[in-house]
Amino acid sequence: MCLSLYNPNFYQHRMLTFFILILWFSLVLVLALFQGYCQTPSRCLTVAQAVNQTRANCDLDAASMICVKIKFHFIKDPSNTAPFPSDQVYSELLAKLNDFLYRGKIKLILDQDCIDKRTINFELNGPRDLDDKLFYGSDANIAYYRSQLGYDENAFHVYSEFAAGGDGMALPGKNITYTSINAWHCMHEVGHMFALLHTHGWNQGVSPESYWECKNPLDPNDGSGDGLDDTGADPYSQDLAPKDGKPDYYNWINTTTCQQTIPASVPDKCGDTQTPWNIPVDNIMSYYPEHCKCFFTTGQLCKMREWITLRFPQYITSCAPTNACADIILTSPTKWSNGSKTLCDKQKIILRNNGSLTLDNYTLTRVTTNPTSPCQNLVKLANWDGIYLETNKNSVILKIIQ
Ligand SMILES: [Zn+2]
């Protein structure tokens, strides 16, 4: 899927080091909440209703939330002079992905808050090359490229080289996908990574008739399609009318309004001329225009849940926010010496009652100082909130190192 390129604003992350006395230190960045992100339903969730649920095999109302670890990588090779996308871009991307997945009670959580932005010293020639480098060749080569590309077995990996362009790919059974960071495109590829097929069930050209789905998924001659009954028959790769040996592609939709234009009298391969068509034009796994798409069916959400649970259970993590990002409340004199503390998005240090804080050769930062992190450029999303002095008895003392 080719999209146009654009250049986002240059972003450079940097470490926050020693302080001067701060009454309040608020880098007012309006970012989506992260670990504590509160999901809200997609505006599109009511657009498409399941037409049949014989192969939609789970009860989402009764299902519990599953939280899944993912890791974003933005890779620049020597030929790429575009800037890195900002943390905020990724924060917003993650919120959108979780919005798409909300109804399925699937939530993506960054492994170690990992936004991995790195420049590599070799060419990365698209998705096939990424797959080749991570999984094929000599053991030494695989180990080398995995270390250079920040790959590990701890999470699903979302690789991007471009903000809004380039191909996408996800391979069955693997924990990687290659995509732009366009929210729809990324969601489509993550859908593949979670085992979903295209709604038309066949990539390009006219598909074999054995793939053609009928309007009624219970018809004994219904084709395999995407293996799901509630996505609606998709004529994108079928040759319905006129029979000209070519796939119908966009013939039956209005690409501006996203409404289908196909009359019920156009027969499917089962000969049905009565049942209205229900082209899944709004489905994320279709090939219809980006602006039309915003929806996963129940069957798709169930299939993703099943795939994650059966194939990659080790990537399922607790949905509870960790205490590591809770506000730090100091109610007595406190001294932090010879070390560093990594603070989270919106985390506060609050001096209350008789609390005071002395920093002596101590770094407060939002950047990891863990040298063994798989993400060499690991950053916490957004900035910590600062030090709050709640009464005038409180103080922050800095010992200046000479
Ligand atoms: Zn696709």
Describe the structure.
The protein is an alpha/beta fold. The protein has one domain (1-199, 280-402): Collagenase (Catalytic Domain), CATH 3.40.390. The protein contains five helices and twelve strands. It has helices at 87-101, 126-135, 139-148, 183-193, 298-311; strands at 66-76, 106-119, 156-160, 169-170, 176-178, 316-317, 328-330, 333-342, 348-351, 356-365, 386-389, 395-399. The strands form three sheets. Strands 1, 2, 3, 4, 5 and 6 form a six-stranded mixed β-sheet that branches. Strands 7-9-11 form a three-stranded parallel β-sheet, with no helix packed on it. α1 crosses α4. The longest helix has 15 residues, at 87-101. The radius of gyration is 25 Å and the shape is elongated. Mean pLDDT is 81; it is low at 1-54. The chain binds zinc ion. The site of zinc ion has 3 residues, from α4. Zinc ion binds at residues 188, 192, 198.
